[in-house]
Design a protein that fits this description.
single chain, alpha+beta, two-stranded antiparallel sheet
Length: about 70
Amino acid sequence: MNTVRGIVIDRAPSGKPLYAHIDLRKYSRELASFFSEKGIELEPVKLSSKMKRSLKQAQKGEVSEGDIENFWNV
């Protein structure tokens, strides 16, 4: 069986394929017509301003590790 990067097949205990997980970052162009026929539209995720700010802080390394003992004392 050929191995394709970006596609993972889940099988039942009997060996029959059940699900296919496809990396859409790699194969969205090839699958666009299939998805449009099924009524699925691939739209980019709209990030809120808080999420954008959090992502920028994480990229800069401005993250802090939480402490389970002091969870309620933020």
